[in-house]
Amino acid sequence: MAHKFSVGQTVELTHRMMENAPRGSYEIRKHMPDSDRESGDPMYRIKSVHEGHERVARESELTRVRRP
What we know:
Layout: E1 10-13, E2 25-31, E3 43-48, E4 54-58, E5 62-64
């Protein structure tokens, strides 16, 4: 399945229950390869400026940041 977001694009991560990920903008760092159990919802490596590490997120958990 094709990825909707591009590497380098800025997105927001929707709040996940029981996880304290920082709110705000994240940069798409990498497209993750398709996996059998997650087909239909592409995955990404994302990075917040407020953390020193990357996270993995499903496309359904991300929204595009609209620039004014």
